[in-house]
Recover the amino acids of this structure.
């Protein structure tokens, strides 16, 4: 049965050279995955990185694949079909370990047509896109630490905007957590091909059979550390992230909490039964998966600007404990305003904001109060004569009038007055001798309160 071409994907990138390299890498990547693994990936049928065509824009055509996104139907599928999908999901993830390379970066072809690893291209999480920035070193990298520092530097060098300094300061803070994340035995490899976002929204399934029909969105797939591949997908750690991010529904959290152990079991099963050139003991793989959330969030925070603050909260709590999150909330503005950060940020070309502390909520309240006081003290121009506004005391009159209208308030005050008078009648001398405070003074205070609110004493 002939396949119908899918609608073309439109690429909007003002850098023609980088766009062409990105599209070539996508074509090569999908071809390698289709040839060397059993992962269902749509074939590329045509593409163009130039605007000089009939479409008037860059495009790419894939084979049509039937199915529904797992993200649209996972809450309606029966458990037995989800179990089958989870097993296939883990199996396809492990199959990517067959595609090992000597360095990290994006796949491409040399002038002689040989497959190799070239410059790393990242998703455009900043407003203008990082693929348009000035030429800097984009790999390939031969160690995990070089890779993590490299993607962090790539993000920092994005086009200048109002968030540039924050990307520099928060990114620099995240870099300090890299030693906690990297497993030294794997720092020099192996390096494997990774899908950049292998989650429910990019997995097509057949709801009637419970099988995966295709895995989509290989745009920014790249050769990365083995730790980047052997990790729980974000869709299976929603419950872990929600205490920090607060954006996942109860059902999403329950779903990930229920099927994450199944994914671990399936991945360990695939590692035992499928020989891909990488052998990891089950106990070691379980340890890697347990630590994978920290590594994945750190990697995301280093490479994507919109994940920085979330990654800081999660990773800081993971390393230093949950109580450190409250400390980090107070110190977040201090990080950007610190002497070291402002000095080195300026040297690196990132101009710190003039008043960093004014963005803090506490400073904002103080500023408003000071402005209000200043406004009261300033002179008011009326008819060309400078006069000072009359001193305005607390608006006690309007406050009293509001309380006078409340029947419940009046009843409480009257009850207090009655209780004070009754105590004096029953024990005229006891309270005065024990508490050293005459009852008449206390009763006088309640009477004063009553007169203050209602203009007369009770019974008058």
């Amino acid at each position: 049965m002939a396949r119908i071409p899918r609608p073309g994907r439109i690429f909007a990138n003002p850098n023609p050279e980088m766009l062409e390299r990105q599209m070539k890498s996508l074509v090569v990547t999908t071809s390698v995955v289709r040839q060397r693994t059993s992962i269902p990936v749509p074939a590329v049928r045509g593409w163009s990185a130039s605007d000089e065509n009939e479409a008037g824009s860059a495009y790419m055509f894939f084979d049509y694949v039937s199915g529904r996104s797992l993200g649209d139907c996972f809450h309606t599928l029966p458990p037995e079909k989800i179990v089958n999908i989870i097993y296939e999901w883990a199996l396809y993830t492990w199959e990517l370990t067959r595609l090992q390379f000597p360095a990290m970066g994006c796949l491409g072809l040399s002038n002689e047509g040989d497959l190799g690893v070239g410059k790393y291209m990242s998703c455009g999480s900043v407003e203008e896109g990082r693929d348009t920035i000035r030429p800097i070193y984009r790999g390939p990298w031969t160690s995990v630490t070089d890779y993590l520092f490299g993607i962090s530097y790539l993000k920092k060098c994005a086009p200048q905007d109002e968030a540039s300094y924050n990307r520099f300061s928060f990114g620099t803070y995240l870099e300090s957590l890299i030693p906690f994340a990297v497993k030294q035995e794997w720092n020099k490899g192996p390096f494997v091909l990774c899908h950049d976002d292998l989650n429910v929204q990019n997995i097509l399934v057949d709801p009637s059979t419970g099988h995966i029909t295709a895995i989509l969105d290989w745009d920014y797939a790249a050769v990365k550390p083995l730790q980047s591949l052997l990790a729980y997908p974000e869709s299976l750690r929603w419950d872990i992230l929600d205490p920090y991010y607060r954006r996942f529904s109860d059902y999403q959290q329950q779903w990930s909490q229920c099927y994450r152990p199944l994914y671990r079991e399936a991945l360990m099963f695939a590692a035992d039964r499928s020989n891909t050139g990488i052998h990891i003991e089950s106990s070691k793989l379980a340890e890697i998966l347990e630590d994978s959330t920290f590594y994945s969030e750190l990697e995301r925070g280093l490479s994507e600007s919109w994940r920085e603050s979330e990654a800081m909260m999660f990773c800081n709590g993971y390393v230093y404990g949950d109580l450190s999150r409250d400390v980090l909330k107070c110190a977040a503005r201090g990080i950007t305003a610190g002497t070291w950060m402002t000095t080195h940020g300026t040297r690196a070309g990132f101009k710190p904001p003039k008043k960093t502390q004014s963005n803090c909520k506490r400073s904002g309240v103080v500023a408003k109060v000071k402005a209000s006081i200043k406004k009261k003290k300033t002179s008011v121009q009326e008819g060309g004569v400078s006069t000072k506004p009359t001193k305005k005391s607390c608006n006690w009159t309007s406050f009293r009038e509001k309380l006078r209208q409340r029947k419940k308030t009046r009843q409480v005050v009257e009850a207090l007055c009655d209780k004070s008078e009754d105590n004096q009648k029953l024990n005229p001398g006891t309270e005065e001798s024990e508490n050293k405070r005459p009852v008449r003074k206390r009763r006088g205070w309640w009477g004063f309160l009553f007169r203050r609110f209602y203009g007369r004493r009770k019974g008058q």
Remarks:
- Confidence is low (pLDDT under 50) at residues 1-13, 356-362, 379-393, 429-442.
